[in-house]
Amino acid sequence: MLHGPCISDSRGAVDHLFCFRSLIWPDVAESWLIRKRSSTWPPTDVMLNSVSQGILLVPIGSKFGSTEDCSFEWRISFSLQERDLIHSFNYVQVLCYTIAKYLKKDLMGESRLCSYFIKTAIFWLSEELDQNMWTPENFVQCIHEIQRRLLYWVRYGYCPHYFIVENNLFEGLLPLERKLIEDALHNLFPLLLQSFFYEKT
């Protein structure tokens, strides 16, 4: 089944996207390799392995360009690198990502808060916070940090792409859409506490 640039299997459970692979690391993402980080994440070996895999070029244009332009545009995909980064997460980082995605999907409704925004926030926080922060006893505080970072981005209308900082992931979002995301984020922390309370009772 054709779904935009993707082809889904008969059950609609898996999407296949045709793409080209380039082993040349793009100049626009050079800053990811050399920027100063407050923590030891991501590990050097993970970064080197990520670069060696190259990047993917996918036939997806900007959602906010003209229809004619979009049909000729390609996007740089760092999905290989994102996979490696997630695999390098510790238990608490994985748990934060999983819980935040669950709350977004099942409890927040149609807020335009996509999972990619959450993943981007965790990537940024992982390299800014001390790795000792990502421990079970700090789990709720970590979730709170994710919420605060996303709220900050929404209020200023700028969500920096993790690999290409100049790319604003909030580009094209209308003020009303940003307000819906902000409202959903304000509910994130109370919903998490309610979920914990429900599980314990």
TrEMBL record:
Name of a matching Pfam family: Mab-21_C
Domain Mab-21-like nucleotidyltransferase: from-to ranges: 15-87
InterPro entries for this protein: Mab-21-like_nuc_Trfase, Mab-21_HhH/H2TH-like, MAB21L/cGLR
The Mab-21-like HhH/H2TH-like domain, residue ranges: 96-174
Family membership noted in the UniProt record: Belongs to the mab-21 family.
Record-given protein name: Mab-21-like HhH/H2TH-like domain-containing protein
The species this protein was found in: Mytilus edulis
